[in-house]
């Protein structure tokens, strides 16, 4: 039996004495794209932060396995080196740090953690040029401080560029469509779709079905009250768009 890229087992998480995740179970086999849909406050983003190892989230039960190994005791940088990547809903600005400097440092930190040689400057420039052209990223944008003064679309393109350069096993995208116009959404979706691979899994978290017109999922999960309450194929996203989440919340209640 093939080992899942991601397995979440009965995960319970508390934030500031409030239970947010209440028994999440999720399995992502290699090569699949899964979407999580749900209302604000249902726990979707909390799941993404806990996967990445964000502080101040108390895990009170369950486990998270990446490639069959528990990552609960790993620091965020160790999880990244193991192949996990989180694209944030609102990427942070980092004044004083050039985008190119950040990208090269991220690649080399990952390589060092894996015992690999650092990327050479010519190799790095080639990688960035190739990936940037696919994402319609202007070279002038890469000379600016990371995310400083970037539009919403530019920030998301910069994150997808990071993802392409790091080549993670598991891509977690937390509401990547937030603040994007249709042109930017298509560019970002094309970048994500170009990374589909039999050796990589993706978890796409979103409110709206429109993103899933561009990144078509293999499985859709409905999140309500801190857990998965329904799973199905891509038609489930269309049903949610038409009917909303109320029926699932009644079921939970």
Automatic annotation (TrEMBL):
InterPro entries: AAA+_ATPase, ABC_transporter-like_ATP-bd, FeS-cluster_ATPase_SufC, P-loop_NTPase. CDD domains: ABC_FeS_Assembly. One of its GO terms (molecular function) is ATP binding. Keywords: ATP-binding, Nucleotide-binding. SMART domains: AAA. Residues 6-250 form the ABC transporter domain. The keyword Nucleotide-binding applies. Pfam families: ABC_tran. The keyword Nucleotide-binding applies. NCBIfam families: sufC (TIGR01978). Belongs to the ABC transporter superfamily. Ycf16 family. This is ABC transporter ATP-binding protein. The lineage of its organism: Bacteria, Pseudomonadati, Pseudomonadota, Alphaproteobacteria, Hyphomicrobiales.
């Amino acid at each position: 039996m093939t080992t899942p890229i991601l397995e979440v087992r009965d995960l319970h998480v508390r934030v500031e004495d409030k239970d947010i995740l209440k028994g999440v179970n999720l399995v992502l086999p290699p090569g699949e794209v899964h979407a999580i849909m749900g209302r604000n406050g249902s726990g979707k983003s909390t799941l993404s932060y806990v996967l990445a190892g964000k502080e101040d989230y108390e895990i009170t039960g369950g486990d998270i396995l990446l490639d069959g190994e528990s990552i609960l005791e790993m620091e965020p940088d160790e999880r990244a080196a193991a192949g996990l990547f989180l694209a944030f809903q609102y990427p942070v600005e980092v004044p004083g740090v050039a985008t190119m400097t950040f990208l090269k440092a991220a690649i080399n930190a990952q390589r060092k953690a894996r015992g690999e040689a650092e990327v050479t400057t010519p190799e790095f420039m080639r990688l960035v040029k190739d990936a940037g052209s696919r994402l319609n990223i202007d070279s002038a944008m890469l000379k600016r401080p990371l995310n400083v003064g970037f539009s919403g679309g530019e920030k998301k393109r910069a994150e997808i560029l990071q993802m392409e350069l790091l080549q993670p096993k598991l891509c977690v995208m937390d509401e990547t469509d937030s603040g994007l116009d249709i042109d930017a959404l298509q560019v970002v979706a094309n970048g994500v779709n170009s990374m589909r691979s039999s050796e990589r899994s993706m978890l796409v978290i979103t409110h709206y079905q429109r993103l899933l017109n561009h990144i078509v999922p293999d499985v859709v999960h409905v999140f309500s009250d801190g857990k998965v309450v329904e799973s199905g194929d891509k038609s489930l996203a269309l049903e949610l768009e038409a009917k909303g989440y109320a029926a699932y919340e009644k079921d939970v209640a």
